[in-house]
């Protein structure tokens, strides 16, 4: 007889007898996860008074936890010998079915289910049996098998319950979830908290459309049924699918009367901070950080929460604060490094991003694909052509990473910004996979910078095949034609947009002041301070025009032609937002503006000049990066 409990035959030989306290000890050890001790006690326990099966279910579970298939089979044989199967002991039956399923012996689980007499077995026992097998199939990612057993359950007139649905819903293909949802609603189970939470989490996998369905489930839940899991699930459904505005609105509701006193936890706050970073919602993010410091004093031990804070600060303009949090972390993950590398890249500090990357590698952390995207993007924003080429060319040899479409997009952007358009085109031709819209879009953007209409047309033809509904690319091509004086091309592109029902996304900028968000659109007069704002913009335009050296290099537009800072070209949203900031903030404070599109060349020149005239710093986050205007210059060094 071996010492290890891998073959606990002695425990079952000769109909061993067990005492109640002894069986309770086995159950307690199993519940505590001390499975080897539970089986050892089963082997050597006191065999004195009358036999019973109280220890057998726990023993089966311990065998499964230790992957002892033969042990489960021996327990099964002993139970059958005692007449406890197939239907006399529901708890034992469930334990055996669960144990077989957990270790992947699904045929034995099905065989045990087949042996059950449907007519004489209590309904609750049957339901337990079916639920165990469905859960086992779900555990091993066998959705077809799950539904086969479920259909069999329904055919046997066995009513399903919440436990059934909690296994079935996550295993279902997304297209089948609404059907399961409908069944749950007809059975009166869809509003149960656990089922609703499961539906919300599953719908969340379906992108923006799935998030809308998740929201409907959440909204239909009674207020009293919504627990922390409910709020976290619906918040994550929106945050993970880029619906930051909706996620932040849900958080506001959670913190108000609708929340029913539910307090956010670290999972909640990670989702909220992610949405703040995406949306540029600085005020909400700062409030979350205050909450973290007051309610979660040990937050530095939570790597995910620290990463979310670093990402928020890096993407919302507080780069020194992001670095401080990073330096204070007790333990860092690859996500921690990537968030900071990406942040420095967005701010144009490519040299610091590269230094951080090298430090990360030297500390034994191997970069992943996301980290490489952040690094290559940082090189692109800073014009670090040689470094970007070197890291890209050594991805496979140095880090065992095969370049993906995102990496090729970064490289096309890097080469294009550097004026190496033909090299960028050759890289696309050499790609081992077909280029997507983002890759061709990077080339088109480079053609805009360098006024290359011919190559731009080639890129545009590919783009409209891949992303025919993306209006931004049509606008970009139209702007290339405008810059090169091809008005017939502008007319053609605009006609295409009309035929396809496409409209240019309106530019908007916003600034937070005293807890309120002030949103501005181009030529927008809806703000209460509109008269004062427009008067200030006009006055500043005149001052810029009169300033010596108002004409400057057109590097921001990517060509050799000089670009005059002309007054009153248009009241673009970032000009209005900055003017509001100048009127309402204290002298010397930095004005932070978030814009949904790229800053245009005229506004870039205007903000540089005004930062010198007003002796103020402006931090503008546009669709691709940060621009910090101070003393008449921009942090991008006109390389954008």
Automatic annotation (TrEMBL):
Keywords: Repeat, Transit peptide. Residues 568-640 form the DYW domain. The keyword Mitochondrion does not apply. One of its GO terms (biological process) is RNA modification. Pfam families: DYW_deaminase (PF14432), E_motif (PF20431), PPR (PF01535), PPR_2 (PF13041). GO terms for molecular function: RNA binding; zinc ion binding. PPR repeats lie at residues 227-257, 302-332, 333-367. The keyword Cell cycle does not apply. This is DYW domain-containing protein. It comes from Panicum miliaceum.
């Amino acid at each position: 007889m071996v010492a290890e409990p891998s073959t606990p035959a002695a425990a079952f030989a000769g109909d061993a007898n067990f005492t109640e306290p002894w069986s309770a000890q086995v159950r307690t050890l199993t519940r505590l996860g001390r499975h080897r001790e539970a089986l050892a006690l089963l082997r050597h326990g006191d065999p004195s008074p009358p036999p019973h099966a109280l220890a057998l279910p726990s023993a089966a579970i311990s065998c499964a936890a230790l992957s002892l298939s033969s042990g489960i089979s021996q327990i099964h044989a002993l139970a059958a010998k005692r007449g406890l199967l197939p239907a006399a002991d529901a708890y034992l039956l469930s334990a055996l079915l669960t144990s077989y399923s957990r270790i992947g012996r699904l045929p034995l689980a099905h065989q045990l289910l087949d042996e059950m007499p449907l007519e004489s077995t209590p309904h609750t026992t049957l339901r337990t049996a079916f639920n165990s097998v469905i859960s086992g199939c779900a555990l091993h990612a066998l959705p077809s098998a799950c539904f086969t057993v479920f259909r069999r359950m329904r055919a046997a007139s066995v009513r399903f319950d919440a436990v059934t649905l909690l296994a079935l819903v996550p295993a279902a293909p997304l297209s089948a979830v609404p059907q399961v949802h409908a069944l749950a609603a007809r059975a009166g189970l869809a509003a149960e908290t656990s089922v609703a939470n499961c539906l919300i989490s599953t719908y969340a996998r379906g992108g923006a459309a799935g998030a809308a369905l998740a929201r409907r489930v959440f909204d239909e839940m009674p207020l009293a049924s919504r627990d922390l899991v409910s709020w976290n699930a619906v918040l994550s459904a929106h945050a993970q699918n880029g619906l930051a505005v909706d996620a932040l609105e849900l958080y506001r509701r959670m913190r108000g009367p609708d929340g029913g006193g539910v307090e956010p936890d670290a999972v909640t706050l990670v989702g909220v901070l992610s949405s703040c970073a995406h949306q540029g919602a600085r005020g909400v993010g700062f409030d979350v950080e205050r909450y973290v410091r007051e309610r979660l004093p040990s937050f530095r031990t939570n790597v995910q929460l620290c990463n979310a804070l670093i990402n928020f600060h890096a993407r919302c303009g507080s780069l020194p604060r992001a670095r401080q949090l990073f330096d204070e972390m007790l333990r860092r993950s690859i996500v921690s490094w990537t968030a900071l590398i990406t942040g420095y890249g967005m701010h144009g500090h490519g040299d610091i991003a590269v230094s951080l990357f090298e430090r990360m590698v030297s500390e034994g952390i191997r970069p992943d694909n996301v980290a490489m995207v952040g690094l290559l993007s940082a090189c692109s924003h800073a014009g670090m052509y040689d470094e970007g080429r070197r890291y890209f060319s050594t991805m496979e040899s140095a880090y065992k990473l095969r370049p993906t479409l995102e990496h090729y997009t970064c490289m096309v952007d890097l080469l294009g910004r550097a004026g190496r358009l033909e090299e960028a085109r050759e890289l696309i031709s050499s790609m081992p996979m077909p280029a997507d819209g983002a890759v061709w879009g990077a080339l088109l953007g480079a053609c805009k910078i360098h006024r290359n209409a011919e190559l731009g047309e080639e890129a545009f033809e590919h783009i409209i095949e891949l992303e025919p509904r993306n209006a931004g690319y049509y606008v970009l091509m139209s702007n290339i034609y405008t810059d090169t004086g091809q008005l017939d091309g502008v007319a053609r592109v605009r006609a295409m947009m009309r035929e396809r029902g496409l409209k240019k996304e309106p530019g908007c900028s916003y600034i937070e002041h005293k807890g309120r968000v002030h949103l501005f659109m181009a030529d927008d007069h809806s703000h209460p301070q509109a008269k004062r704002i427009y008067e200030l913009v006009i006055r500043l335009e005149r001052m810029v025009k009169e300033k010596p050296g108002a004409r400057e290099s057109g590097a921001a537009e990517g060509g050799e032609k000089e670009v005059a800072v002309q007054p009153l070209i248009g009241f673009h949203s970032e000009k209005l937002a900055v003017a509001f900031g100048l009127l309402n903030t204290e002298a010397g404070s930095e004005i932070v503006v978030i814009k949904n599109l790229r800053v245009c060349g005229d506004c870039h020149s205007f903000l540089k000049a005004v930062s010198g005239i007003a002796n103020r710093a402006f931090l503008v986050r546009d669709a691709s990066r940060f621009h910090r205007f101070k003393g008449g210059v921009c942090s991008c060094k006109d390389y954008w």
